[in-house]
Amino acid sequence: MLGAARRQLGSAPMLGQVLRRLRPATSARAYSAAAKEMTVREALNSALDEEMSADPSVFLMGEEVGEYQGAYKITKGLLDKYGPDRVLDTPITEAGFTGIAVGAAYQGLRPVVEFMTFNFSMQAIDHIINSAAKSNYMSAGQINVPIVFRGPNGAAAGVGAQHSQCYAAWYAHVPGLKVLAPYSAEDARGLLKAAIRDPDPVVFLENELLYGESFPISAEVLDSSFSLPIGKAKVEREGKDVTIIAYSKMVGYALQAAEILSKEGISAEVINLRSIRPLDRAAINASVRKTNRLVTVEESFPQHGVGAEICMSVVEESFEYLDAPVERIAGADVPMPYAANLERMAVPQVDDIVRAAKRTCYRSVPMAATA
Amino acid sequence: MAAPWLARASSQLARRAARRLLSSPAAAPSQHRLCPPGPWLLSSVPPPAGDRRGFCSVRRFTGESSAAAVAVADEEAPENGLVAGGGDQQAIDFPGGKVSFVAEMNFLPESQRERINCYRVLDDDGRTISGSIFQEVSKELAIKMYSEMVTLQVMDTIFFEAQRQGRISFYLTSHGEEAINIASAAALTIDDIVLPQMKNVQGDFHAALNFAAVMEAPVIFFCRNNGWAISTPTNEQFRSDGAVIRGQAYGMRSIRVDGNDALAVYSAVHTAREMAIKEGRPILVEALTYRVSHHSTSDDSTKYRPVDEIEHWRTVRDPVSRYRKWVQGNGWWCDADESELRNNVRQELLKAIQVAERMPKPPLSELFTDVYDEVPSNLREQERLLRDTIKKHPADYPADVHI
Fold first, then answer.
1. Complex-level ipTM
2. Main-chain dihedrals φ then ψ at residue A234, nearest 5 degrees
3. CATH of B139-358, one of 3.20.20.70, 3.40.50.970, 3.30.1250.10, 2.60.40.1120
4. I need a labelling partner for B269 at 20 to 30 A (CA). Which of A190, A339, B345, B383 fits?
């Protein structure tokens, strides 16, 4: 956490103020200060490695996961270590290999299916929802499906409309699925391990642009038994004036926005959802009851999105605590443009979050984004 | 459960690895291989260069394909990669195997002149066709198969009626297709895993056949072609020669069988099973039949097909009576047996319905359990709220949902 603050600040003078406000990343346990750093890619790779080592029924399937070491190198070295029985390169048929993986899960294996991006999961969505998510319910608990679907989700950079969609709201809509969205390396390790150990089907939404980002990581997180609870959000930064809720890459943006806001005397509390379904409504509402203002941030299309669900949860449980309407920051309601300048305009930027937070604090700022 | 699957997968992969060794340049080139193993498991994929964004699958091929390495012995491979194939024909080893060139531009016809032949053993009068080859069945098995076919027939009639009486909500009958249901199952053992589907050929059917052929999985793909998908006849569904022709397209052995001939279905599945196990390969079986029944209890098929067509198949082509004639012809069955069986089956089914109808419906808690392994907090909360509401307004709560 301290490392993250240092990274974002760049300049020393604010450090003292920031350190006073920040909460240590780990609990009160006496672990030594975070000396090690780990990229999200390394975190995912090590999590897969350790879970495969601990449980012989865990295996990987996907395009390019084996010989190619993974399209984004997440599965690097695993074919060499575990062999072709545990790391399976598949033909280009998501419907085909997802069906096979779900069938394997029916029989008691624990597949981890990689979609090269979640856009391709649409080819297999019938299996994810009808064959996996609903089976436990339809079989009265007799057929559980301990499967993980993972891969990069949402916008990358310059990959165009058909490769940039965020599927968090799509999958979080379905009872029977669990949907996770890590941000940091700690999230990636802890949540992926939890997902693999979970008896239910889990959709694990990574982010391509976060793979190379480095985060400080404690000894506790490095332990092979480490995992994070599913359904619990994390307060990344404590604050008292406005709650900013985000997931995945937008957590980083929210933290940057919080930094900027603090210079203007607005203390923002940043919540990293970590889990889209189940949604940590308790944490969301506890925060809003404290700050009385809410900004939700997501990169995906606005309509029927995660922000809408968060807003509704607050309206249902903490309506009288709101001092201002909820602000929803989301991507533009258009297929992702390919032109780089337009793509930039189609996704939230840090400034958008800052302006929204100010609006909730009655600092009137024009709604339109800057050019 | 996990171990046998992995063991089988291991042995298949070991076999593939061994074949890869055989077709490598180092091995003896005497075996001419047309199909190098698993296209995506190239033995010499170069390590990825730098930080390519690889979200589109790109295959990298080495300069020398494995097929080139096993050129016909005695032939010197000329430098331009062409291999003499006799006469003025030439061939080249594209990835996937050697292909010969022709100078004429020949399009493969969209269909063969004749359709793929259909395997049958019993004629329309239930007599074995002379010279037919089939798997012998014992008297015990023959009678068991017949009894099950009759049971299915009676069950369909009773349950169709039950739906019309409002006792069940929906039902699909198998009239005219009983031989397929029973004879195919009779050829399997209790340890074979059966994954039945009511699914018209789409999407992952093709993926499954392709995968199974490449992975050499011991699977029988049994396709029941009964001429209809609700109201869509097969000639509006596809233009190929049924399903059997697709086997070859996926590199899979296949057979077409008369689905109304219980002995033929039994024999074909029995043999397919042996092939699948002994040779480690998938087999496609297409059973031709006719859907005598409506698609379901929600369908009235007289709206889209002639009644006399249905009647013809229901009577003249009935698989149950056809098989019965064969069983009776062997001296294994008589009319008295028939009435006794039908009576007993009917009684048993009616009793089963009564027992089922008397069973209590699921309690309220079943609404919320098994969505996940453990009931999540939001559902626990909803159940609590619901139970509170029921306590406050008991008169408004439906009587058939037990608390």
1. 0.81
2. -120, 135
3. 3.40.50.970
4. B345
